[in-house]
Amino acid sequence: MVGLKEELLKSIWHAFTALDLDRSGKVSKSQLKARMKVLSHNLCTVLNVPHDPVALEEHFRDDDEGPVSNQGYMPYLNKFILEKVQGNFDKVEFNRMCWTLCAKKNLSKSPLLISDEDAFKVWVIFNFLSEDKYPLIIVPEEIEYLLKKLTEAMGAGWQQEQFDHYKIALNTSREGLSAWELIDLIGSGQFSKGMDRQTVSMAINEVFNELILDVLKQGYMLKKGHKRKNWTERWFVLKPNIISYYVSEDLKDKKGDIILDGNCCVEALPDKDGKKCLFLIKCLDKSFEISASDKKKKQEWIQAIQTTVNLLRAGSPPPHKEARQKRKELRQKLLAEQEELERQMKELQTANENKQKELETVRKQLEAAAARAAEEEKKRLQTQVELQDRFSLELEREKMVRQKMEEQVAQKSSELEQYLQRVRELEEMYKQLQEALEDEKQARQDEETVRKLQARLLEEESAKRAELEKWHLQQQQTIQMTEAEKQELENQRMIKDRALQVAMQQLEQLELERKEALEQYEEVKKKLETAANKTKSWKDKVAHHEGLIRLIEPGSKNPHLITNWGPAAFTEAELKQRQKSWKGKKATSE
């Protein structure tokens, strides 16, 4: 019932969305309420649901929670209509009622190559193949599936390259087509060039019968009566749990049903009583003998009926519904894989961006460190130059002081020589005046004076020598301090060089990690391409699978005499002759 409810909701959605539109695109609140009441009444009628006027009027009261909004109407639709649906209603009539409400306001005004009836059938097929989300759209994969079935029903060749170009143009603008865009696409004849309107209409009707009416196979065959035992031509229609037979293919005069279940079986019979291509359908209460037109038709009907019985035994849905479910599951799986790959790509891209940011940060840090090292080296060189200049200046000063001291020493030496010369002269005078007492006393006094002067000179010389030794010691200390500062600056430079080498090693490590991230990115990209190739191969397999399970149906008997394999093998005159023969046999039997 959940699947039935979803199918009903799609058709009702089209009718509901058309209520609030008129030619001007606006509608009053009272008009919208009246239209919703009409829609609810019509739904109850076509779905064979009993009316509840009290609940209808109570729900359609004039407030914000009423039917003016979708939130107000959908609870009423689920509670009072859809939950009471039992399945005993005409699906075609239900869809036609919803189509009548929405087609006039949405159908394109441009001329189409298909009739309104064909447009209605395409609209119903759209509801069957569309995604279970609103607003309803049909994805490119389902469009390809539908166009392939229509092309196959028309007996034409499928133009894959043409559809691929159309699919690329479609994917660049949107996810899929609406029902009205799908009708315009099929009605434009873009994928049915060279086909007349009747051929396209027959193909749409054939696909509609298979997908919507669950017609697995249909065609004319002879059936043996249970009472008279005579053979009568009937139009047989095979569905998932029943075989109905009619007087003709217009389905107006139904003659009976063959109810199928898991206990039924079908088997071929040998030719007898002048009848060929016989097979027997065994059920619990009855058995039915049927004669096909040829061996190929006989084998096709036996295989189709046996496949239907096997599906009933397994409790499986019809092939086209099962295939649709598999296509949806495959799309969901591919979408999940694509989202996972995109997530991984985003993670790798984020990681790569983070690595790039880290590398940029490290690069900036290295540049800053190099700038600081250059600045410090510059300061160190400047300090060294200043120290050298200061040391040179001190040396010059020391040299000048030493030169002055040497000049003073030379002067003192000259004075000493003069003093010695004077002493010698005094000694000579002492010798000369030794004879005179007065001169001797004076000479002794002069000698004492000279001795005192000599002692003072010696003391001054000693003081100057001590001062010179002090200046020499200070000069050595200054030289030692300069060497220590130079050694300390050299140690700092070596430490910074080692830090720069460590930073360069970290930069190389980060570069290797970035390369590994790029390699992982390339691997994920290859996986994405592999997934895309797998997706294409799966699409080809699904298309091949659909081509294998599709049951081939005979074409309708009409003046054009077109079958699923192309033109018929007999002429119109021969057909008329056979019809006269059949009518004569029929009159004789009756």
TrEMBL record:
<dbReference type="InterPro" id="IPR011993">
    <property type="entry name" value="PH-like_dom_sf"/>
</dbReference>
<dbReference type="InterPro" id="IPR002048">
    <property type="entry name" value="EF_hand_dom"/>
</dbReference>
<dbReference type="GO" id="GO:0005737">
    <property type="term" value="C:cytoplasm"/>
</dbReference>
<dbReference type="GO" id="GO:0003677">
    <property type="term" value="F:DNA binding"/>
</dbReference>
<keyword id="KW-0472">Membrane</keyword>
<comment type="subunit">
    <text>The SWAP complex consists of NPM1, NCL, PARP1 and SWAP70.</text>
</comment>
<protein>
    <recommendedName>
        <fullName>Switch-associated protein 70</fullName>
    </recommendedName>
</protein>
<dbReference type="Pfam" id="PF00169">
    <property type="entry name" value="PH"/>
</dbReference>
<dbReference type="InterPro" id="IPR011992">
    <property type="entry name" value="EF-hand-dom_pair"/>
</dbReference>
<dbReference type="Pfam" id="PF25530">
    <property type="entry name" value="EF-hand_SWAP70_N"/>
</dbReference>
<dbReference type="GO" id="GO:0030027">
    <property type="term" value="C:lamellipodium"/>
</dbReference>
<dbReference type="GO" id="GO:0005634">
    <property type="term" value="C:nucleus"/>
</dbReference>
<dbReference type="GO" id="GO:0005886">
    <property type="term" value="C:plasma membrane"/>
</dbReference>
<keyword id="KW-0963">Cytoplasm</keyword>
<keyword id="KW-1003">Cell membrane</keyword>
<keyword id="KW-0175">Coiled coil</keyword>
<keyword id="KW-0597">Phosphoprotein</keyword>
<feature type="coiled-coil region">
    <location>
        <begin position="320"/>
        <end position="541"/>
    </location>
</feature>
<comment type="function">
    <text>Phosphatidylinositol 3,4,5-trisphosphate-dependent guanine nucleotide exchange factor (GEF) which, independently of RAS, transduces signals from tyrosine kinase receptors to RAC. It also mediates signaling of membrane ruffling. Regulates the actin cytoskeleton as an effector or adapter protein in response to agonist stimulated phosphatidylinositol (3,4)-bisphosphate production and cell protrusion.</text>
</comment>
<dbReference type="InterPro" id="IPR057836">
    <property type="entry name" value="EF-hand_SWAP70_N"/>
</dbReference>
<dbReference type="InterPro" id="IPR001849">
    <property type="entry name" value="PH_domain"/>
</dbReference>
<feature type="domain" description="EF-hand">
    <location>
        <begin position="7"/>
        <end position="42"/>
    </location>
</feature>
<keyword id="KW-0966">Cell projection</keyword>
<feature type="domain" description="PH">
    <location>
        <begin position="214"/>
        <end position="310"/>
    </location>
</feature>
<dbReference type="GO" id="GO:0005509">
    <property type="term" value="F:calcium ion binding"/>
</dbReference>
<keyword id="KW-0539">Nucleus</keyword>
<dbReference type="InterPro" id="IPR057837">
    <property type="entry name" value="PH_SWAP70"/>
</dbReference>
<keyword id="KW-0238">DNA-binding</keyword>
